[in-house]
Each structure stands twice: as C-alpha cells, then as structure tokens.
What does this fold into?
Amino acid sequence: MNKSQNSILFIDPRKFPFYYGWIVLTVGTLGFVMSAPGQTIGVSAFTDSLLDSLSLSRDQLSLAYMGGTMISAIALTRAGQFFDRFGARYTTLIATFGLGIALLYLSQVDKITNAFGGGLLITSVFILIGFVFIRFFGQGVLSLSSRTMVVKWFDAKRGLAVGIMNVFGAFGFSIAPVLFDILILGHSWSGAWIIMGLVSAVAFPIVVILFFKESPESFGLLPDGYSKTKRPISKPLKFPIHKDFTLDEARSTLSLWVFAGYPALFGLVATGFTFHVVSLFAEYDFSRDTAIQIFQPIALVSVISTIFCSWISDHIQLKYLAYLFSIAAMLTMYGMMNLQSSGLYYWLLVGGYGTCSGVHGLVISLFLPRFYGKKYLGAITGQAMTLIVFASAIGPILFSQSLSVTGSYSTAAFICGTGFFLLLIASFFTKNPQESLTNSN
It folds into this structure.
C-alpha cells in the first residue's frame, strides 16, 4: 500500500466543493514545467556560457551531455517502481529537491573544476556529474511523477486533462529559454542556476507537500469526479481496462516499444535540434535571432495540435495519432534538410515540429494507462522514460558529429527521418493489449 494513501497532510480532497483532480492537474502541470531546467530546452540556454567558462569544444560538451543523460536513464525504471510504492508526493519531493541541489552544484562547476586543477578530463567528469543529476531528477523523475499523478486522476476525461497539461506545459517550455536568458543577463549563468536551484529545492517542495495526492481511489473517490452512486452506467468507458499489466508483461508487447519509440526518437531530434539550433540555422545563413525565435511559431502550432488531438484522443484508437506523428516528423526532417531552398521548408519545419511537440506528450501520457492499466503505471512509465531519456542523450552528439564529419546537419535529419518511417511501418502491427483480452473473453 502507498504510504501516501493514508496521509492527507492539511488538505483533504474529499472536502473540496469541486473535483480535486483539477487541482492535481494544476500542480502536476506546474511540476512538469518545473522540470525545464533539466530538459534540453533549459540546458541549451547555458550551452554557450559553459563552452566559454569550461573551455570545452561543442563536441566535448555534447559527449558529456550524452553520457550524463544515458547514465541518468539507467535508474528511471527503479524510480517508477519507487513511485508505485511510495506515491506522487514522496517521489516528487525527492525529485525537486534533488534537481535543486544539482543546479546549485552546476552553478559552481567552473570553480570546482579549477580547484581540482582543471584540464579536459577533470572538467568533463565534473560537468558530466551535473548533467547526470539534472537529467535524472528533472527530465526523468520530476516529469514522470507529475505526469503519472495526473493521469491517475482521470479516465474518460484523460485526453482532455493531458491536453490541458501539455498546452500549459508547452507554453511554459516556450518561455523558459527567454526567462533563463533574462536571469543569465541579469545575474550571470552561475547566478541564474543558483536562483533556479533555490526555487526547486526550497520553494516548490511546499507546493508538493500541500497539494500532490496519489490517486482518487486512495481517498474513496472515483476518477473524473464521479461518485460511486452517480457514475453514469449508460456511458461506460470507451477504452475499458480489463487487466493491470505488470512491467514484465508490458515489456513483452510490441506496442510498448513502438509507442514509446515515437517520443523517444522525437526526444532525440528535439535535443539535437535545440542543443545546436543556432549553429544549425547558421549553416543556412540565418541569424541567431531567427534561430531562437523559431520556438515561438513552433509553440503556437504545438498548442493548436495539442488542443485538437487531446479532444479527439478520447474517441479514437491511439494508432491514428501514431500515424499523424510519423507524417509530421518526416516533414520536419525534410524541412530541416532543405532550409536553404525556400521559405516553404522553414514552415514545414515549424509545422511538423510543432505538431510533433503537441502529439508526443499525448502519446506518452495516454497509451500507458490505456494499454496497461494503473496499478503498475509508475514502473511501466519508468521503462518508457528510460528509452526516451536514453534516446534524447544521443541527439546532441548525433547532430554534432553530423556537422563535424559531413559538414552538415542534413545527415542526422535523414537518419531520424528514416527512423520515423520504420516506426510508421511497425505501428501498423500494434494494438491495444486490452482489446486482445476483450476478444479472448
């Protein structure tokens, strides 16, 4: 039994005048946005400062980032199992405090390396340690616990809830680089990380203690705000759960690897693109401002696609979102490979990337509880997040090596586009495992 199930701590969801799930959605979205310093879009704001302060090349920093991200991915399945055992509050408290400490460490990483004599090996080791912990606690555990908590509070309205979370999450991530840049300009890159670390380690834990709750069932409630006596029997769930799959059972299904493969491969593209966005646009003679500003129209497209896809996802099989994901991703890669040709390819990149940004959060949040149930959701989500984080580690070095070896980022884009095409083919052979159970009964 979750320890958090018997711990209300100040706020009782049963006494709210409206369904507490909407509070969970609000604070879960905030938790997801708070992971931004550990996401590539947050780290990218500090890339140039780190290159200057640590005297590393772009390839060397990319390798350290890849190593840190890969190491962080190893423990995510265990983190998911910890979530299943101890609940959202305890998991998120550890994650946000750990992220804060990691940011404070990174704020002093240049001084630490100098104290140990500097040099390439020493510098690489100490920056890798920082990357391990901000990726594990930020992109990994904080994102996992916030998302998983939210989907536990909704069934029939899960698509709507996740859509709202992704819309505000996309807005938060789109303005994060701007806010981080303001902090860097006003307080230096070290001061910016100190401020962010204190917020994560000291301020946000108060929100977690007060408002994070494990599940509606742990308080005698039902998902979506229904009471046990008022749930509309005439409207059964469109995608009912017949069985809660264990982690080993989920691993044996093709659907887990294909549907996790989509956000994993897009995570690779996103980290590679975001990490090197200024350099990528410079290859085609675009200015730094043009490169940075591309995230604004991308965010707009992302919001539109999120709203539409979250609404329709509650009514259709998720394989149709997978098809859309594949097409949008291949258009993204095609636009990235031909930016120099005309403005059309710029907008292909914006439209495709924005659509993928809107859909990928829905895919990872929706397919796991719909396909495998909620009892072991933390462990299965941890397995999926391991794949996603591991893939995202490869992005910066893949794009960096593409430029170093071939003189262009187009090779990396072609490789990723081929990967999305293969996922499209594989998705035709996947199905919801719950449907197999229905057919066998």
About this structure: Residues 20-216+241-429 form a domain with the Growth Hormone; Chain: A; fold (CATH 1.20.1250.20). Residues 278 and 292 are 7 Å apart (CA to CA).
